[in-house]
Design goal:
- By secondary structure, the chain is an alpha+beta fold.
- 29% of the residues lie in helices and 29% in strands.
- It contains 6 helices and 11 strands.
- β4 and β5 form a beta hairpin.
- It starts with 34 loop residues before the first strand and ends with a helix.
Length: 238
């Protein structure tokens, strides 16, 4: 996973071994609004109707893949080989996916009728009921530097908090030696802007194969956490 010029996060952490996915609806009782309007930006969950819109599914797929290719430029031998998602998986994500206790949704940002960005939002990440996650964050180049990435993440965090999540997670395969500008920006974005902390690191050596592309730099797979419910977190520590 990698970044856009605005931000991005991988959600390709090691498999939790949960049961296979199944189409699902949003939780029936959600007091957190499923749509957030801030100025000209509208952020909302994808729906099954979105999944039936082939033009939208194609645009979202291209958006994510182009964002990730821009992010891995300089990290892999040929960025065009890198494929983050295909149209079938994007359609499935629009419908929502359930992996046992893990429930995954797609969050979309629009400016007018145009797709400005997207991210995934997951409850019960890897089967842990108090752990939420965001990933597959991508912002269209035409709409970068407008805070859209932050709006998508804020929406996801608020929804997860409403659903009883205590800690949020995101992940990123990142070049940590200081030689890759996008990686440097992303680590700063997650830690300084979003207040996430690195809790685990996995070494990913030069020559590693990831989503169709081969890395030309040593990288690390970084696991970030952020406490979103301090009171509940303290109770869990007792």
């Amino acid at each position: 996973g990698s970044a856009t010029g605005d931000a991005s996060a991988s959600d390709s952490a090691p498999s939790s071994g949960q049961a296979g996915p199944g189409a699902m609806a949003l939780p029936p009782k959600v007091s957190q609004p499923v749509e957030s309007v801030e100025g000209e930006v509208v952020v909302r969950f994808a729906t099954s109707e979105d999944g039936k819109n082939s033009e939208l599914v194609r645009a979202l797929t291209e958006l994510v893949n182009e964002a990730y290719r821009g992010a891995v430029d300089g990290i892999v031998s040929n960025k065009e080989d890198f494929v983050r998602i295909d149209e079938d998986e994007m359609q499935e994500r629009c419908h929502g996916i359930g992996y046992g206790a893990m429930k995954r949704f797609l969050v979309l940002a629009f400016i007018g009728d145009e797709v400005a960005g997207c991210c995934s939002c997951t409850l019960g990440w890897q089967g842990v009921d108090v752990l939420g996650q965001f990933g597959m964050l991508a912002v269209h180049p035409s709409f970068q530097r407008k805070g859209i990435a932050t709006k998508l993440i804020d929406f996801s965090e608020k929804f997860c908090l409403e659903q009883g999540i205590v800690v949020m997670q995101c992940e990123e395969r990142t070049c940590t030696d200081g030689s890759h500008p996008v990686s440097n920006w992303m680590m700063k974005f997650y830690q300084e802007r979003l207040k996430y902390k690195i809790v685990k690191k996995y070494y990913s050596p030069k020559g590693s194969f990831s989503r169709g592309a081969v890395s030309v730099k040593d990288c690390e797979f970084l696991i970030y956490h952020k406490v979103i419910n301090q009171e509940a977190y303290e109770k869990l520590q007792r």
